[in-house]
Amino acid sequence: MLPPGSRDTIDGRTMAFEWIAEQRIREALQSGEFDGLPHAGSRIDLEEYFSLPTHLRMAWSVLKSAHCLPAEVLLLNDVARLEREVAQAAPQQRDRLAAELRAARLRLSLALERLQSESRARSSVG
């Protein structure tokens, strides 16, 4: 590790930020702050990340880290939930739930169609 002011400089100034970041990481490693992290030592699977179109990667990474789901996934989950509820519902509730299910399927279909048309529009531009 190079001390500030040695050979890594830009315009005569030390790259202090990089040096401080490296120093803090080393201190955290030595004090055990990274011990016991989930999935420590396991291989990182980047296949899903690189399968995404480049213009979506950053946004999806941020949303995934924040445990936020795209609207289409939320709608798909809603359809699956309603399908289970219809299958288990009492006869007097089945008609109402079936109507909700039809409406949820329509919303999902429209959302997927919109997503496909946006994707086609982007691919035709590039």
Kindly describe this structure.
By secondary structure, this protein is mainly alpha-helical. It folds into 2 domains: 1-33; 67-126. The chain is 68% helix and 3% strand. It is built from 5 helices and 2 strands, in the order E-E-H-H-H-H-H. The protein has helices spanning 16-31, 47-51, 54-65, 71-88, 91-125, and strands at 9-10, 13-14. It has a two-stranded antiparallel sheet. A hairpin with a 2-residue loop joins strand 1 and strand 2 (13-14). Helix 4 (71-88) runs antiparallel to helix 5. The chain is elongated. The mean pLDDT is 84.
Key phrases:
single chain, 126 residues, 5 helices, elongated
In short:
By secondary structure, the protein is mostly helical. The chain has helices at residues 16-31, 47-51, 54-65, 71-88, 91-125, and strands spanning 9-10, 13-14.
Low-confidence stretches: none
Please report which band the strand proportion falls in: under 5%, 5-15%, 15-25%, 25-35%, 35-45% or over 45%. Answer: under 5%
Gross geometry? elongated
Average of per-residue pLDDT values: 84
List the helices and strands and how they pair.
Elements: E1 9-10, E2 13-14, H1 16-31, H2 47-51, H3 54-65, H4 71-88, H5 91-125
Antiparallel strand pairs: 1-2
